[in-house]
Structure formats: structure tokens, C-alpha cells
């Protein structure tokens, strides 16, 4: 088959890349809505509006043009990732505060897109879970698992006014996450096998949440296919997490969950394909990416297993962001033509 010139293609713009990332999140959002209701769409909308408004305000303060940066979709990526990391019934002000902090401080304080050393969405999440831990633990019970479910109008009443139907309490509508339940019940002396028999768990991890994780993985495969992200970081992260969890599980299956549980519980899939692959905060060298992703997997497992927080993806991302400059210095490839040890 004959190919004709020209062979040089036009580079993909930042806005196109970010748009593909947004599209890749849609399967996960769809599963989220199916199992946990449409309240998450409210959080995504609030976060998107706040992100764009804060972006515009910061650009104005910095005397930068508005249109190129407001239309590159980077602010929306931060908004969506943060919203998907929060409980669906998070109060409106919680979403606004976290998103505004992520854009204003984590992004523009360091010079804007391309200069931020930390993932803005994960900074916003870390600030919220440390400052408002009680509000970050009210996760909705999956559809079909709880006896009481709120309508969309009732969800709106709570998000914007803190109002629940008469006679209902928030504890009757929410539950701990599968990771949090596992950690709590292990401390009470139950075995992993006994805990996994609880209705909250499905075949792989949590009922409903495991399907959301699978949908994120499908979106991640789309990003790999379209070459928006490189295969090295998600593969290294998932393989390392599998190996570490597998070693502990084989050594003591009574107290440590199986590797697939760690893959499909919490934000592991979201982290593997959408958070750790952030081109700004991640390593740029081949060996550096392996170290970066493997370190993130190790930190994720250690926080999940021995830490105070049920999930460790956000903190793993931020801690490895700190290490990236040093990792890149250590893993720079040799200059072509330079002999080892010579100058």
C-alpha cells in the first residue's frame, strides 16, 4: 500500500487533549449516577462553574488573556476530578471551597498551567479531608442496597440547604466506603473473609463502586488508545499495587485483602489513568516514571493498610509530586555520545 506525503501531522492542542480526558471520565460518571444517583452531577456542575470563575479571576489579576486559558479545558479537568473524589451529597460550599482553592492556590500561585508542581485536584481534596473530615465521610448507599433513597429534588434540598425529609437522618442514607469498612472491621477482630460477606461488597470490591472503577478503566484504555497518556505509569502503578497487595495477602489472607480488591476499591483506577498520569506533576523520564508510579502504589497500599485514612491515592500523588524533581535529576539518560563518567 502506497502512502503519500506530507507525513508531518498537526500537533494535538491542549484543549483537544483535555477534552479527550473529559470524555474518558464520562463512563465512570454514568456508572456513578446509575448506582448512587444524580447528585454527583450537581457537584460536577458546581465545581465546573467555580473552576472557570476562579480561573477568570486569577487570570484577570495576573493580567493574562482570558480566552486561551478558559477554553483549554484544564480548569474543567481539575473540577471534575475533585468532584468525583467527594461524596455525592457534599454541601455546595464544600465543593466551591475545594475547587476555588485548587485553582487559585495549587495552580495560579505557581504560575498557572504547566508550572504547578502538585495535582490541583488532589490538593483541593487533601485540604477538604483534613479541614472538614466529617463532611467527607457521608457516602451515599448504592442503589438497591439501602432501604431509603432520596429523589433528585430531595438531594438538591440537602446539598443547598442541609434539609432532609422529616424523620430521616443522614446516617440512614449514607455508609462508610468499602475501604473504610474493611479497616474498621479488621480493627474489631473480624477476618477479611467475614468482612467480604457483608452486603456492601460485590465480587471484586464494593457493590456499585467496583463498576465505577471498571468504567474508569475503560476510559483509561480510551486515553491509551488515543495516546493521550503513556502506558508506563498506569501499568507500573497497577502491577506494583497488585504485587504488594498479593505478597501481604499470601502471607496473611485473614488480615490483608486480595490484590483485585485494591484495584477496584477506592480511587485506584481513577488514580492510575487520570491522576498519576498528569503530565505536569509526573516524572518525564522513562525510569523516572517507573519509580514515580511504583512509589505511588507503595504509598497507596501503606496508607490503606496502616494509615489513618481509608484511601491513599490523593496523598500518594502529592507525596510523589514532591519527589519528581529529584527523581528526574537521578534518572536523566546519558547524553548521546558521552562516555560513562567522562565530561
User: How many domains, as an integer?
Assistant: 2
Which spans have pLDDT < 50 for at least 5 consecutive residues?
none
Helix share bin: 55-70%
What is the N-to-C succession of helices and strands?
Answer: HHHHHHEHEHHHHHHHH
Q: How many beta-strand runs?
A: 2
Q: Helical element count?
A: 15
Shape type: globular
Mean pLDDT: 90
Q: Sheet with the most strands?
A: 2 strands, antiparallel
> Helix/strand-derived class?
mainly alpha
- Strand arrangement in the largest pleated sheet: 1-2
Please, what is the oligomeric state?
single chain
Description:
60% of the residues lie in helices and 1% in strands. The chain has a two-stranded antiparallel ribbon with strand order 1-2. The protein is built from 15 helices and 2 strands. The chain has 343 residues and is an all-alpha fold. It folds into 2 domains: 163 residues, no CATH class; 156 residues, no CATH class.
Write a concise synopsis of the structure shown.
This protein is an all-alpha fold and 343 residues long. Helices cover 60% and strands 1% of the residues.
Which structural traits does this protein have?
343 residues; 2 domains; mainly alpha; globular; 60% helix; single chain
Chart the SSEs and their pairings:
Blueprint: H1 14-36, H2 39-61, H3 67-70, H4 74-85, H5 92-107, H6 120-131, E1 139-140, H7 152-161, E2 174-175, H8 178-187, H9 192-196, H10 209-225, H11 232-251, H12 259-264, H13 268-275, H14 286-306, H15 313-330
Antiparallel strand pairs: 1-2
